[in-house]
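Sequence only, no structure available. Ideas?
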Amino acid sequence: MGLAKSGILSEVEFYKMIMLPYEDQPDYLLCDDFKWIENEFFVWIRHDRIEDFVDYFVTKFGKECFDYKSTKADLTIDHVIINMTDLIGHAVDIESVFPKDPRTFSEKIDDHIMWG
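Reply:
I predicted one. Tokens follow.
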């Protein structure tokens, strides 16, 4: 865990980027969707938001993430799909922010009590 350029923990900044990038505009999201596919975390960004996404990303995490290694993106009719594991997985523990197991903590405790 490290700090983003803002001085906030990188994982917190990553969460904000996905869930609430602009606190004064709660309905304006940079990502339409996000999910794990096997061991990689992807985000879906509408074409008209890609520039905002890149600007936000560079402001919070720096241009260096783009230098770390190449990141491939898929282009669909509505979205650009970016593998965030490739882009920022070296600097952010993505799974600590968005667990692969979508069950809540209480559901996991219930399973443990029930099944030992």
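The helical segments are 10-19, 50-61, 64-68, 84-88, 94-97, 105-115.
Hope that gets you unstuck.
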